[in-house]
Specification:
By secondary structure, the protein is α/β, with parallel strands linked by helices. The protein contains 18 helices and 19 strands.
Length: about 500
């Protein structure tokens, strides 16, 4: 099976890694006894792939030797991950680790429901190397009511959006990509590409969340929740419904126009199919939205897709609470072995051999080692995951021509980024859980269609807004404003 071609315009692959195991049973009594083997279960979204088993078997040899534990890896498809974990948590099933974030298997809701445990005591005792690796500024970004509930997968934490085009097109048309800033600029570029390649009329499934960031909007509850601030405004942040903003209205009208004029696809591109941007090595999308730039992304993308992108970064790097909480691994409340589980997280984040095995598979089959720090992925690859969902990418091999300083540059961006005015704010969603759930249902029903300009935008938009109002959107906005006001005062802002 040939290696899948992933989107060249997104900052990362939307395939993650997962793991699983048997129940604790008698193992739980021997958690702190290094002579007693335990079995741990790790849930992270990942496609089922032909070579998963051989990679997991090799990983368990290392894990068994280092911490006397075994992990049974159980892939859960990305699209069904949220629902799967909800069922598991509701049923109080025993497991040990889950991937949590502000956008998948919601970190804050898991804290509120008691699905995951505080790690403040476990981290310094059972994962001292991991704990010390991460600056307290970033730990502070994932605290909820003063406590840490998730291990940060170190990567690019600061967010810097922008536009991305295939280098092939930029060179062929002798085009300065830095000219592409506004929606009008994007349209001009699409028309230019289609003047020679009319088949290039497919855009990624979702562009609005990245565009929102470009124009100064921070969707601090995630892209599916109607609560946002303008991060570049002075004074106390004002919470508003981003879907009522002039920027959103302009965006969806522009997408409608592009669709009517045949510049973009006529049918809805589902998120799970958004990776199908290349067919028979033919590029079919002229531009994409990059939500997070990171050093070496050009080389990484080219290594994964065989198409090299050129980026125009817009707005500068911004460190947000959402960025800090974008990729976490948490320990389940039902874990019978939290101490050994923390030892496993420490191992994955500090042992380069184990981390790169889980990230890239087996040398000689899934990749070729060019030198001690650099690899080339195999064409015939049956094991592809997103290593940023496993642990610290600072332990990762480099791709092809990525600079030797890639990880140092990444750290520099994180450390020097502009800090959001509500960085460290952890919302309490309990007072508006019902309203927020109903609002998310409305967003799920309408946003993709409006985002892609498919359907009758003039008819759908007022229905969308009305459904949000009926769902209690104003109660969500008011509650978030109240909490931010209190947080702002308590932190002496």
């Amino acid at each position: 099976m040939k290696m899948k071609r992933w989107i060249a315009f997104l900052a990362a692959i939307c395939i993650l890694f997962s793991a699983g195991c048997a129940k604790g049973g008698e193992d739980s009594a021997a958690t702190n006894d290094p002579n007693a083997e335990v079995t741990l279960k790790w849930y992270v979204p990942c496609a089922t792939q032909e070579d998963n088993g051989m990679v997991y078997e090799a990983a368990n040899k290392i894990i068994k030797e280092k911490i006397n534990a075994e992990v049974e890896f159980i892939p859960v498809e990305f699209g069904s991950y949220d629902q799967k974990l909800q069922v598991i948590n509701a049923g109080r099933d025993e497991y040990d680790i889950s991937f949590t974030s502000n956008w998948l298997n919601n970190y804050y809701q898991n804290v509120e429901k008691g699905n995951i445990i505080a790690l403040d005591e476990l981290l310094p005792e059972y994962a001292p190397e991991l704990y010390q690796q991460i600056d307290q500024k970033f730990w502070d970004g994932v605290r909820v009511q003063g406590k840490i509930y998730g291990v940060i997968n170190q990567q690019i934490l600061a967010r810097e959006g922008g536009w991305s085009v295939p280098e092939k097109f930029a060179q062929e048309f002798n085009y300065d990509v830095s000219q592409i800033v506004t929606l009008e600029d994007v349209e001009e570029w699409i028309r230019l590409v289609q003047s020679k390649y009319p088949e290039c009329n497919t855009l990624p499934a979702s562009i609005w969340p990245t565009y929102a960031q470009m124009v100064g909007i921070e969707e601090f509850l995630g892209e599916s929740a109607p609560s946002a601030i303008r991060y570049n405004e002075e004074g106390k942040p004002v919470v508003f419904n981003q879907f009522l903003s002039d920027e959103f209205k302009e965006y969806i009208q522009t997408r409608k126009k592009w669709n009517e004029e045949g510049l973009t696809q006529k049918v809805l591109v589902e998120p799970e199919n958004a990776v199908e941007q290349y067919k028979n090595d033919q590029i079919i999308t002229p531009i994409g939205a990059m939500n997070t730039y990171k050093p070496g992304l050009e080389d990484e993308t080219e290594a994964q897709t065989k198409v090299r992108p050129v980026f125009n970064r817009i707005g500068g790097a911004l460190l947000t609470t959402s960025g800090a909480a974008a990729s976490l691994n948490s320990i389940a409340d039902t874990s019978k072995n939290p101490e050994r589980t923390m030892m496993l997280l420490n191992l994955v984040n500090t042992d380069k051999e184990l981390y790169n095995l889980l990230s890239f598979g087996i040398e000689g089959r899934h990749y070729t080692k060019l030198n001690d720090t650099r690899i080339e992925l195999s064409e015939e690859n049956r094991y592809i995951v997103a290593n940023w969902a496993i642990g610290s990418v600072y332990n990762s091999y480099l791709y092809g021509n990525q600079a030797d300083t890639t990880w140092e540059e990444t750290k520099e961006i994180n450390n020097n980024a502009t800090i959001s005015p509500i960085y460290g704010f952890a919302p309490n969603l309990t007072p508006v859980n019902v309203q927020l759930t109903n609002c998310k249902t409305a967003v799920k029903e309408y946003l993709d269609t409006l985002d892609q300009g498919v359907g009758d935008t003039d008819d759908l938009y007022p229905k969308f807004i009305q459904k949000l109002e009926d769902a209690g959107v104003q109660e969500v906005i008011d509650e978030m404003q109240k909490q931010i006001d209190e947080w702002y005062e308590a932190n002496g802002k």
